[in-house]
Please model this.
Amino acid sequence: MSQEVWKHLANGVDLIYLPELPGCPKKPEIAILRLPEKMYNEFDDDPQGFLEKNDVFHGVPLNRVDNMHSGKKKGKGISVIVLAVHRPSSTVVSFSEPEGS
Model:
């Protein structure tokens, strides 16, 4: 995926919001985040607050975030890829995986 697809947010957070890409479905809303270690720790502590604070789903209030981990250990300084799917019930299911694993 080319670097131009990533939208750069604050604090080193990168975002791909699939509904904005040509040919991608508008629903369910799918976002891919690339988070540096520090920002991933913030996400892991409060996934719902993190997604809302960073306006990942364009201001839509979220009811709940169910965050799943791959179980793989991430190395120090390794970015983490988070796939987040915003369902019609305003529940988000997310899956985290260390980048490059």
